[in-house]
Amino acid sequence: MLTAPPFYCRNMLLEDIPEVMAIDVRSFPTPMKESMLRYELVENQLAHYQVLAQKFTIGDASEKRIVGFAGYWLMGDEVHVSTIAVQPELRGQHLGEMLLLNMLFLAYEHPACLVTLEVRRSNVAAQQLYAKYNFAVVGERPRYYKDTGEDAILMTAELLNGRYHQFLIAQKQTLLAQIQTKA
Ligand SMILES: CC(C)(COP(=O)(O)OP(=O)(O)OC[C@H]1O[C@@H](n2cnc3c(N)ncnc32)[C@H](O)[C@@H]1OP(=O)(O)O)[C@@H](O)C(=O)NCCC(=O)NCCS
Q1: pLDDT 10s per residue in the chain (183 long)?
Q2: CA angle 22, 84, 35 (to 5 degrees)
Q3: 112: DSSP letter
Q4: Range of the domain at 61
Q5: Does ligand 1 have an atom closer than 6 angstroms to the CB of 132?
Q6: CATH number of the domain bearing residue 44
Q7: Nearest protein Cα to ligand 1, atom 48
Q8: In this structure, are residues 152 and 145 in contact, taking their beta carbons and an 8 Å threshold?
Q9: Total domains, the chain
């Protein structure tokens, strides 16, 4: 799990649900149901969810809060990204990138060969993030999102290529330095 003090990734716990839901509701047109997230954490053997937490101090007390989260399903040798979000006030500080990179390293560890995801056509920020990590557009699903009728863009990244792993390691060094400089 990636760490860039004061930020660190860890597995999501049931007790994280309220903080995660508070970010989710501000991040997506149709928020996830709490029962669905609970199902993902407790029942779904394919599901892997992580949070991005931040340590901070108030007076003498050391506190922690959740500032983002991500999740994926491991299906055979394929990882499908189900969600990723960062607290709105903290976007644009490479934290979404940290969550994505953390998932990509976890995908390698399983080991998976392919990472797939769907993204709304209008979601340029997310598409740019995935493109930065060499995800390629491989298709689209017209009117996939029931809430807005929007199309989904399908994107994939292949993990088998050794050069991609080297690329991720290099990205990690750059990213951790960027986050720590800003913190
Ligand atoms: C998508 C999301 C997770 C990105 O998180 P973030 O912390 O703001 O993004 P980062 O700061 O890590 O950005 C990393 C890269 O993403 C791209 N990016 C991020 N925000 C962008 C924006 N507003 N416009 C264009 N590209 C953007 C850039 O390539 C950026 O790299 P760069 O800074 O070197 O140019 C965040 O915008 C979010 O939570 N959105 C709401 C939920 C969502 O849409 N999730 C995706 C579902 S598919």
Answers
A1: 999 999 999 999 999 999 999 999 999 999 999 999 999 999 999 999 999 999 999 999 999 999 999 999 999 999 999 999 999 999 999 999 999 999 999 999 999 999 999 999 999 999 999 999 999 999 999 999 999 999 999 999 999 878 999 999 999 999 999 998 776
A2: 50
A3: -
A4: 3-182
A5: yes
A6: 3.40.630.30
A7: 119
A8: yes
A9: 1
